[in-house]
Design goal:
Blueprint (H helix, E strand, L loop, with lengths): L2 H29 L2 E3 L10 H14 L2 E18 L5 E18 L5 E11 L2 E5 L10 E8 L5 E3 L6 E2 L4 H15 L1
Length: 180
């Protein structure tokens, strides 16, 4: 084999490897789920800290309510991808029937948007996302996003009602003081 033939053979072999690697990388990109990290501080360790945390969040958000998840659905949206190009996507939203409003306008239903998006077969989530379950009761501290839509406060106190009994006691005291 001449030097030229040897070089040509090695070049062809490397090109096949590069092509195969490219195909594998494209397939991985098209079928994976993006997960973005979120870091939240630890919860309150005693009643005094809990009361302070509830008051702080109550003062921060425009809407605090208890309610039941009645639907989870994806709605079509236009979103910018990582390159800044506008793409069609679907955004996961939850509909909750409202039982009691502790702060904010009295409404019978609230739609909460999430940071969960679908682009065809690709989904994008963050570890900050709260996985609501249909039919479950929640205490929700909702904030407004830049589009004026309600969403759960990222590292906030939103939780199942059964886990939020102490929060509810603090909220009841707060709201009774506000009425007087």
């Amino acid at each position: 084999m001449t030097l030229f033939e040897n070089y040509y053979f090695l070049h062809q072999t490397n090109m096949k490897k590069i092509a195969l690697l490219s195909v594998v990388l494209v397939l991985m990109f098209l079928t994976h789920n993006n997960a973005l990290a979120c870091v939240c501080s630890m919860g309150a360790t005693n009643d005094k800290e809990l009361k302070q945390a509830v008051i702080e969040e109550f003062n921060y958000v425009p809407l605090v309510f208890s309610g039941k998840v009645i639907a989870a659905e994806y709605i079509p949206v236009i979103k910018k991808d990582y390159l800044g190009k506008q793409v069609n996507a679907e955004n996961l939203v939850y509909r909750l029937s409202v039982d009691k409003v502790y702060k904010g306008e009295a409404v019978s239903e609230v739609i909460l948007v999430t940071d969960v998006f679908r682009y065809g077969t690709i989904s994008e989530t963050t570890s900050c996302d709260f996985n609501y379950r249909g039919g479950e009761q929640y205490l929700v501290y909702a904030t407004l996003d830049l589009n004026g839509k309600f969403r759960r406060n990222g590292c906030g106190r939103t939780d199942l009602i059964k886990n939020a009994k102490k929060d509810i006691k603090v909220l009841q005291k707060l709201t009774s003081k506000m009425k007087h």
